[in-house]
C-alpha cells in the first residue's frame, strides 16, 4: 500500500490514526499536510467542433468557431493533480467565458488554497457566501469546475474512482444519447443515420410548428427504430405551442418534450404539461434542488433534466436527483457538449442513478478533441472508470496549445 493510500486508510479510521499538519500522528485526526492544495490554475481553452451544433436559442459551436471552455488544474503539496472543467454558452446561461475565468481566478480558486480535497462541503458553503445563489444558483458553471477538481483529487488520494465516492456505480457502462442540431429536415435525417449504434436522440426544434413537424417526419423516415427526446430549448411561445402539441400526438417515438417555453415562464411550463400527450421535462428553468421542489409544488413538469454544470457541481446535481425522486419526478441526465473532464464527471454521476433515457452527453459526437485520454468507448457506450478519481489523463501540452487569451 503506498503512503497516500495508507494515510487515507488511517484517516478514515479516525482517533489516533490521523496525521497532523506537520506529518505526525494526532488524536484530532487532522488530514495530512501533503493533501492540501497549494496551487490552482485557471485555463481558458478553445475546442473546435467537427460540425455545427445549433439549438433553439442559438449556435453552440461550428467548425470555424470553437467552443469556449475553462479547465481548472489543482495541485496538492504532495504533487497530486486534479482537473475540473466547465464551458460557457451565454445564450443558454448567463456565465460568459470572461465571467467564468474572472470568477474562478479572483474569487473561487483562492478559497481552495490550503484546503484538502475532502473539504468540499466547507468549500461549497464559502463559495455560496461569496457569490450568493440569490435566485437559483450563483455562478454555477464556475463553481462546478472547481468542485470537479476537488473530487478528482479526492478520488486519487483515496485510491478510488469518483463513482465510489458517490456510493458506487449501478452499471459498468453508460449508454449515451446524441443530439440532432437544428437544420433542414434532410440534414437532420442524415445526422441520425451517421450514428447507427445510437438508439435515442435528443432532437432540437426551433419554435416553427410546421417546419419542426417536417423535421421529425424526415428523421423518423430515416430511423424509425429510435426513441426521440424532443427539446425546444425555450423556443416556443405558450400560445403557439398547442398546435405543435396536437400534431405530435401522431408520433409514437417521442418519449418526452423538454423545455418548450422560456426558462422563467413557469406558468407556461405548467400549461404545456397540461396540454402535452407526452411527459414534459424542465431544464433551463431548474438549476437547483430548491428549483426542483418548486417545480413539484407548481406541477410545472413531469421530469427533471440533470446537468452537473448548471447545478454548481456533481454533489449539488446529486442533491437535485434526490429531491426529484422524493417528489415523484422522473430523472433525465444531460450535459452541455462537455469535453473529457466534465464529460467523465457526468458519466461517474449518471452511473449511480436510475435515468429514464440514456443521458445526452454529446461531446464525443461534436468535438474534435475531448482534451482527455483513457476514455474507453464502444459505439455510444462509455465504460465507467475503475481507476482513481475521474480515471482519465489530461494532455497538458494540448491544453497549453489550445489556450485562449482572456484577461
How many beta-strand runs?
17
Overall geometric form? globular
Radius of gyration: 21 Å
Average pLDDT figure: 92
Beta-strand residue fraction: 15-25%
Which features does this protein show?
407 residues, Enolase-like, domain 1, TIM Barrel, 3 domains, globular
Description:
By secondary structure, the protein is an alpha/beta fold. The protein has three domains: 1-33, no CATH class; 34-160, Enolase-like, N-terminal domain (Enolase-like, domain 1, 2-Layer Sandwich); 173-394, TIM Barrel (Alpha-Beta Barrel), CATH 3.20.20.120. Helix content is 38%, strand content 19%. The chain is built from 15 helices and 17 strands. The protein has helices spanning 3-13, 97-112, 120-130, 140-158, 162-165, 185-193, 209-222, 238-248, 266-275, 289-298, 308-311, 314-326, 340-350, 363-366, 396-401, and strands spanning 18-19, 25-26, 37-47, 53-55, 58-61, 67-76, 81-88, 173-175, 178-180, 200-204, 227-231, 254-258, 280-282, 303-306, 330-333, 377-378, 381-383. Strands 9-10-11-12-13-14-15 form a seven-stranded parallel sheet. Strand 6 (67-76) and strand 7 (81-88) form a beta hairpin. Helix 2 crosses helix 3. The termini are far apart.
Secondary structure layout plus pairing:
Blueprint: H1 3-13, E1 18-19, E2 25-26, E3 37-47, E4 53-55, E5 58-61, E6 67-76, E7 81-88, H2 97-112, H3 120-130, H4 140-158, H5 162-165, E8 173-175, E9 178-180, H6 185-193, E10 200-204, H7 209-222, E11 227-231, H8 238-248, E12 254-258, H9 266-275, E13 280-282, H10 289-298, E14 303-306, H11 308-311, H12 314-326, E15 330-333, H13 340-350, H14 363-366, E16 377-378, E17 381-383, H15 396-401
